[in-house]
Design goal:
The protein is an alpha/beta fold and 653 residues long. It is built from 25 helices and 27 strands.
Amino acid sequence: MRNIKTVLLSYVSYPVTTAVYFERALRKSGSVVTIGPKLPEIMIERWNLQNMKLPITDHDIPTSFTPDMAELFPIISGKVQPDLYLWIESVGGHYPKNLDAVTCPKACYLIDSHLNLAMHLEWAKKFDMVFIAQREYLPEFRKQGMRTHWLPLGCDPEVHCRVEAPKVHPVGFVGGVQSGSRREALLTKLSNRIPVHYERCFWDDMARLFSRSQIVFNEAVRNDLNMRVFEVMSTGSLLLTDIARQSGQDELFRDGEEYAVYRDDTICDVARFYLDNDTLREQIATRGQLLAHNAHTYAHRVEDLLTVVLNGKSDTFTAEELRQRSLAGVPAIDADITSDVCISSARRSFIIPVLDMSPASEYNISTLLDDLADIAGDVIVIFNGQEVAEHLKGHPRITRYAILKQNIGVARAWNLGLEMAVTQTAFIVNADLHLEQSAVDTLEEALYALPDAACVGPQGSFFDFNMARDYTYFDKGTFDYPLAVDAVSGFFFALKLEHFNRKIIRFENGFTPCYFEEWDLGLQIKQAGLKSYIVPATAYDHHWSGSIRALREIRFYEKAETAGEVLLRNRRLFLNKWRGIAGRTDNVQLLESGFQSYAADHARTLVAEGRYGDARQWLADAVLRCRESMEMAGLRRFIELQISKSDWELCAG
């Protein structure tokens, strides 16, 4: 959308009309000149607007109810040259004359077509483009050859905001009530069983009443998708409404997910159900607020309108498109099913696969259980064989365990442990690890502090997918700040189970019995839009391959293979799996390492510190590491973009 010079906005001035919200949104995107009359005092009494509390101000260009644009527009255009004339329905009788004299594009926004259809059909002919709030009537306008678009009403989050106050009203309502109307009958039915608080109020007072109500009642007049739908949802209180048929309402929002829908004969039962279910009610209301703010503010409406009028967009968003836009970034309705089963009193779990007593290491499952004696958390042991299990299954530090007759491999054992874990955080821990409390604390704090962190460990790497090898590996004590990497090493790391359960991330069973699980996990995390981090931690000790180095063959299920045979087989499986995924999803970037960015960042840091020789050597090493998987010149050009020309010349010597 281009920056608009001026919108000439025409409506009757009073503070609670829809056009005010459009004006507020328009002023944030460009220049606005308002034109039109003020609301007469007699209308305040007639419409029961005494509680507006805000003054009725003059427009930038005050006029009568029927200004002559043939006289006014030449004067206006000589000063401000409007890009758009926008007339918004506000008060009956405000109909400017001689609109043909307005030479810029002319658009109108008609709100009450369900009440004023005949007049709207006639008045709209004077405009180049017509926008209507009630979708049901689009065919009537289009049949007459008018370029007409649906633009539903909306909310202003700065006005229709949640006010932090106790919810003291079971049911609240703000709006007009005519004697003998369906609305009056419904409110009477409700109030006979449930206390209903009603006020005729506006702006801050209205937002406060909505916020102080557990449920806010709404009723559609002639199936209109009215302002109250969006305004109530914007405040984060539960909207209780009927269905406005053919309005698009049931396509924008879903009953029981973002609001509550009643029929005339069920209104009391529906209200009572949600009053008795606090958590469900607030969950639905919060989700409704997210959707309203994502796609249904007046800023959204203004952007859609202007893009159609001035930028050539063929039509405004459909209900389906608005639904999709409103769901951006909003968790699925069932997203908390798995994450809400954190039923353990512990906040973390330690998942430990055990094959044997780690004969090639000084540490084993017994020493690890001793380490964990003073570290809080559930301890879940997966015994990949019965011999060790018979000696340790009764250990007092083990919270839960599974005993398998055969070795099912590391990945399957980790997955089994994840299914048994009922905490927010899971630590994957090798049995041949010595562990101290501070290392656990360091990883856990980082897991919840670093952005989009799904996996955090003390060691990890950037790896070259095509060559199936590391570009660079970060060992214990070789880095001093958190770093997002391609993969975290599998002997000790922490996982945020909320991410794993929502994104359905699990270790690849196909890599049984071992190898490539960590790289595969790193790519799964990246594919899910999350990150793997390494963080500086030193309060642990680990010697690689505490079991594998002592085995001539690795026995798993009914098979036995050497470590080399397993490595070759799983390398092929790993490469085939992710090439297939990248090809099907047309996502080649998925397989690209973060090493280039890291190399450039590190070179830039060295230059900033004045260590030009170190920067030159680092770049030479980085290029050498990448030689077989990318063009040396490509990396060098990439890094050149990160460092100023003068600094680069210093690096180059």
